[in-house]
Design brief:
Keywords: Phosphoprotein. The protein has about 130 residues and is of the alpha/beta class. It contains seven helices and five strands, in the order βαβααβααβαβα. The mean pLDDT is about 95.
């Protein structure tokens, strides 16, 4: 899943993931609010939720309406099964040391990557 308010970044990142051939389905959200609603709705599907939930969520930090950290706070309220399945990778242009440090407070944030997403980043994910 890609969550970024920049449509061009989403398109480029989607193409990089497709080229790496690491995913059958790529969900793209241009806002954190729609992404969290999507995850909440998938949870309601019970038996098939596990197959629909993304393995990796690439999350931008600086977005209008709901930023990446607000998303993480709401993500924390989702089911244990969702939090266990979905690994989060911060994919952002922020080089602010406070953002990097803050992201480490969330156990399901597995990596912090600066944009753009590259094949090398994808190959070394190990989440």
């Amino acid at each position: 899943m890609l969550i970024d308010d920049n449509e061009i970044d989403n398109l480029i990142n989607q193409k990089m993931i497709e080229a790496a051939n690491i995913s059958e389905n790529i969900y793209v959200h241009s806002g954190a609010k729609s992404a969290i609603e999507f995850l909440k709705n998938v949870e309601k599907l019970d038996s098939v939720a596990e197959t629909i939930l993304p393995d990796i969520i690439f999350l931008d930090i600086d977005m209008p309406l709901m930023d990446g950290f607000q998303f993480l706070d709401l993500f924390d309220k989702l089911s244990e099964a969702t939090k266990k399945k979905c690994k989060i990778v911060m994919l952002t242009s922020s080089i602010n040391p406070q953002d990097i440090s803050k992201s480490k407070n969330y156990t399901y944030v597995k990596k912090y990557i600066n944009k753009p997403l590259t094949q090398q980043n994808i190959n070394t994910l190990e989440v």
